Amino acid sequence: MIKEVTIEGENIIIDFTGAPFWKYYVLQLYFLICHRKKLTDYIK
After folding, report:
1. Most buried of 10, 18, 25, 39 (most Cβ within 10 A)?
2. What is the rounded CA–CA span in Å between residue 10 and residue 20?
3. Strands 10-15, 2-7: parallel, antiparallel or unpaired by DSSP?
4. Is residue 43 classed as helix, strand or coil in its secondary structure?
5. Phi and psi torsions of 9, nearest 5°
6. pTM for the complete prediction?
7. HEC profile for 22-39?
8. Number of domain units in the chain
9. CB atoms < 10 A from the CB of 18, how many?
10. Which of 4, 29, 8 is nearest to 16 (CA)?
11. Number of C-beta neighbours around residue 12 at 10 A
12. Sheet holding 2-7, edge to edge
């Protein structure tokens, strides 16, 4: 599962493959609360 988010003009791509599933939710909450952004699916 690869997600992306754009913050202040920077495109950040995060690969969650093999990561514990709770890390996705922690980062999703961080981006929503601190940056008011949502992680979206990454399309090449």
Report:
1. 39
2. 25
3. antiparallel
4. coil
5. 85, -5
6. 0.75
7. HHHHHHHHHHHHHHCCCC
8. 1
9. 6
10. 4
11. 13
12. 10-15, 2-7, 40-41
